[in-house]
């Protein structure tokens, strides 16, 4: 992409693409890129899916000169600028700049406050464009593109007033569908001890220790008492906050026998927690209470219902990494690759405070659970 220094022609218009634009969009991909093109099938899917938007720049004759593709994270305030393409004949005329500005406006219209994207390290024109528009580099991916080129990661707050205080929490991706709790715990350990190195063996070991959920089919997940014990046994300070006493996460199963197993396992863990002297507090878990404890140096792990983000009614653990006036920021150990997500979509995900409070509960009883992990007890 050439430098976008000049203004786009006044007759240029930006509008939402439709399926009727599919042939022109496929032709644009072929003209704009030598590799890593969006296929016809994928482009049709993007045009028809609810959590994506495709905008096109057209001239006075209706010819498509450029496009931008946005992917919206369900339940969060982040949008990913997935692709931007400009026809070679239209480069240097400000088309890309107009498309990015329109993409930011669309993000804000859909109540998204952050835009993120990846850029090839050798694409100096795009790097210059996005940096001139206020995008900040915050990381990179090795071997990201088909030719093994590195990708630079950029982000921008659509509202320039957003200045979150974010903790330095190294990201760790869960390697199995049922290990979100252990993965979140390993992230907390990494944040508190720079020398700590998470790995899959430890992830699975923690899962074996902490599992309390007996799923209808497949493997079970981890409850708050099990995760608290797993952290305590490794020497970390732990505090457990719950909205109410009693057996938890029973909505995950239908079988009375399996519910009985879950209740017995949790009761045994509760006895171990009491014997270890792990503090357990009962009451509402709110963004304000999380922010207060995080301000004391603890790393919060919070149980959420993944329905708002992934459309599945399962309990899910995330790590809270920061706060500002409008949002709670989290590391989500799960990456939804079927929806085109990358780790950038799961790192420091902004979630509106009111939305987070609704999300941070599970089941008909509205269970709320949070773990606060502190420094090693011997430190």
Automatic annotation (TrEMBL):
<feature type="domain" description="N-acetyltransferase">
    <location>
        <begin position="12"/>
        <end position="159"/>
    </location>
</feature>
<dbReference type="Pfam" id="PF00583">
    <property type="entry name" value="Acetyltransf_1"/>
</dbReference>
<dbReference type="InterPro" id="IPR000182">
    <property type="entry name" value="GNAT_dom"/>
</dbReference>
<dbReference type="InterPro" id="IPR021770">
    <property type="entry name" value="DUF3335"/>
</dbReference>
<protein>
    <submittedName>
        <fullName>GNAT family N-acetyltransferase/peptidase C39 family protein</fullName>
    </submittedName>
</protein>
<dbReference type="InterPro" id="IPR016181">
    <property type="entry name" value="Acyl_CoA_acyltransferase"/>
</dbReference>
<dbReference type="Pfam" id="PF11814">
    <property type="entry name" value="DUF3335"/>
</dbReference>
